[in-house]
Design brief:
Structural class: alpha/beta
Strand content: 15-25%
Helix content: 40-55%
Shape: globular
Radius of gyration: 22 Å
Number of strands: 10
Distance between the termini: 25 Å
CATH class of the largest domain: Alpha Beta
Order of helices and strands: HHHEHEHEHHEHEHEHEHEEHHEH
CATH superfamily of the largest domain: Bordetella uptake gene, domain 1
């Protein structure tokens, strides 16, 4: 997206260039720019970051996005040398947080950690919304990915997805998820379409509250990232009946893959790091270098792995931005097919 990557510094340098006499050196040009109050970005890049960075999470504490932010917060602060402050701004399937970042100054001090729900799906399912992913934010890199999961209250006495579908044909099965029009809402709609079952998709402001209600019996279960459900599955408070990976996970050999009964039910969620669209490339690259450095650390990888995440192997911003653009279009076609647009 070259047109969006033009920096304020480029504009400033161009402005100085129109004022500078012929033959002036680059050093003199930059010095002249600084006298005019047009600080060259090279100076900014050398000192960035010089104050705390806000990491916006478009969900309440307790879900997978907040988990990812908390894992990254301290090691990223260590590498960049400034505090990283997690800022939860839940609502509208994460779009509220994403819009906040999209409108923030493009200086690298306000970043977004998000899933496809808030950057690929939400902006396309909210008619008239002024936020457009491809125009208003830019990708830094993917952090990690993981399969989705269906987890239920153990009181249902159900062991697999086929039995849950059978139950749904006798009465509606209520599954909580983190907001209408999101990845999990889409999964429940796909589940109903593929199986012919009767599933009610119940929106919440985040996975934490949905999981609480599933444990308490106010819901039959949840459609979620695997990570937030895992500790409750291990403690017996929830029961995983399916994961949406291609096959069973080596770490959960007793949990069936949805594809064993319904081959079309394959889905992965991911976490990505984003910035406002006009953030200078030098800042994007600096944050990406720090991210890639910490994702190789054993302690960071272990935390993601324990939550059933696969740490990203994407090389950098260009690859991630191309992926996000492609996924935005693919998800748009799927949403239209489901009648969600």
């Amino acid at each position: 997206m070259p047109d969006r990557m033009t920096t304020d510094c480029d504009a400033s340098t161009a402005q100085v260039s129109t004022l500078a006499p012929a033959g002036i050196s680059r050093r003199d040009l930059l010095a002249w720019g600084s006298l005019l109050g047009l600080a060259p970005f090279e100076a900014f890049a050398d000192t960035y970051p010089s104050r705390p960075i806000g990491l916006v999470v478009g969900a309440p504490p307790g879900g997978s996005v907040d988990f990812g932010a908390r894992v990254l917060m301290r090691p990223l602060a260590e590498v960049l040398g400034v505090p990283i402050i997690v800022d939860n701004k839940p609502g509208a399937t994460g779009v509220i947080g994403a819009k906040f970042v999209a409108k923030a100054p493009a200086d690298g001090y306000t970043l977004l950690i998000a899933t496809p729900t808030s950057v690929l799906i939400g902006p396309q399912t909210m008619p008239g919304d002024s936020y457009n992913t491809l125009r208003d934010i830019v990708g830094i890199n993917m952090v990690a990915k993981n399969p989705l999961a269906i987890a239920i209250n153990p009181a249902l006495k159900i062991d697999n997805l086929k039995d849950l579908v059978a139950l749904s044909r006798t009465r509606p099965v209520t599954l909580g998820q983190s907001g209408s029009g999101g990845s999990f809402d889409l999964l429940i709609k796909q589940l109903a379409k593929v199986t012919g079952g009767n599933f009610d998709s119940i929106p919440y402001k985040g996975m934490g509250p949905a999981i609480t209600d599933a444990i308490g019996g106010q819901l039959d279960g949840v459609a979620s990232d695997l990570g937030p459900c895992l500790p409750f599955h291990q403690s017996g408070k929830l029961k995983l009946v399916a994961v949406t990976s291609d096959k069973r996970l080596a770490s959960l050999p007793n949990v069936p893959a949805a594809t064993e009964s319904y081959p079309a039910l394959v889905a992965y969620n991911w976490l990505g790091l984003f910035a406002p669209a006009k953030t200078p490339p030098e800042v994007i690259n600096k944050v990406n270098a720090a991210l890639m450095k910490i994702l190789t650390r054993d302690d960071v990888k272990a935390q993601f792995t324990q939550a059933a995440n696969i740490v990203s192997s994407m090389k950098g911003p260009a690859e991630f931005q191309a992926f996000a653009t492609s996924e935005y279009k693919r998800m748009g076609a799927m949403l239209k097919e489901q009648g969600m647009i």
